[in-house]
Amino acid sequence: MKHTLKYIFSYCLLFSMYLVQAQEVPTTTVTKEIVQEKPKTPAPKTAKPVVQEVKTDSVQTKTDRYGLRVGVDLYKLTRGFYDKDYKGVEFVGDFRLTKKYYLAAELGFEDKTTDDDRLNSTATGTYIKGGFDYNFYENWLDMENLITIGLRGGFSTFSQQLNSYKIYNPNPYWGEEPAIAAGTKYNGLTAGWLEVAMGLKAEVFTNVFVGFGVQLKLLVANQKPSGFDNLYIPGFNRTYDGNFGVGFNYTVSYFIPIFKKKVVIPQTPPKKKEGPKK
User: Fold this and answer.
1) Closest to 192 in 3D by CA, of 142, 160, 249, 230
2) Average pLDDT of 256-275?
3) Are 264 and 58 in contact, with CB atoms under 8 Å apart?
4) Burial 234-256, CB ≥16 within 10 A → b, else e
5) What pLDDT does 24 receive?
6) Which of 28, 103, 174, 175 is deepest in the core (most CB within 10 A)?
7) What is the per-residue pLDDT across 62-100, written as a single tens digit (0 to 9) for each?
8) Are residues 231 and 278 in contact, defined by beta-carbon separation less than 8 angstroms?
9) C-beta of residue 179 within 8 angstroms of C-beta of residue 120
10) Residue 82: left (phi > 0), alpha (psi -120 to 50), or beta?
11) Whole-number average pLDDT of the chain
């Protein structure tokens, strides 16, 4: 009995050791080697072509032409077609001195018959006017239009012929006296005046200009014939308003270029952009 228990105990011990051995799971130690990754080299970028900005000369220039402009007053030239009491012609001219100033002159002839309430007279003579014009119009590139204001001095030499006259009757009970034919002619008369001239000229074709002008005149010298007044002075116009007169012309002229000058056009600097206000 004693040996039997001894064997049973031994078998139980062996069996329990077998169970413990069977339940043990072999532990495998996995050693992971930490390898530091190398930084990735970025793919080479495609180099953009370098565009070099070529700075062009920003200074703009234009060519100003200098020369003589000559023409004729169409108003005086055509007035004789519809006014039987008038014959006349006027030639106009100007020469460019500087960018803004022009020498200007007019030369003309007039024959004008004036029929007043009391007398009828004919003034015949020539005149000349000279002075300067200032162009205050800013042209675009390669344009030569003008808007001018100027000053002139005028001088006329003429004759007056008294064709007929009426004697003034303060008591016309029996009616007006008939006109008396005279036919008296006075030669060698002169007159002088100053005038302010305003006008414009526009180039309609190459070197061909059409213009319009107005003159305000002040008579400063007037040699009168004996016995009556100058009702009309060639170059000055009528004298009905005393020493003041008004005239105008409508011209066609041709420009004769003589030389040229290059002018630098001033550039306006770009405005700086203002940042946001704090």
Assistant:
1) 230
2) 73
3) no
4) bbbbebeeeeebebebbbbbebe
5) 45
6) 103
7) 788 999 999 999 999 999 999 999 999 999 999 999 989
8) no
9) yes
10) alpha
11) 80
Per-residue model confidence as pLDDT tens digits over 17-65: 544 444 444 444 444 444 455 555 555 555 555 555 545 556 677 788 9
Please give the structure tokens belonging to residue 39. Answer: 């930084």
Q: Where do the DSSP E strands lie in 77-179?
A: 86-96, 101-115, 119-135, 146-165
Q: Is 224 helix (H, G, I), strand (E, B) or coil?
A: coil
Tokens matching residue 25: 């799971």
CA atoms within 13 A on the CB side of 194: 3
DSSP 134-146: EE-----TT---E
Q: What angle do CA 115, 118, 122 make, to 5 degrees?
A: 35
CA-to-CA distance for 166 and 179, rounded, in angstroms? 5
What are the φ/ψ torsions at residue 46 (nearest 5 degrees)?
Answer: -75, 120
Residue 183: pLDDT over 60 = yes
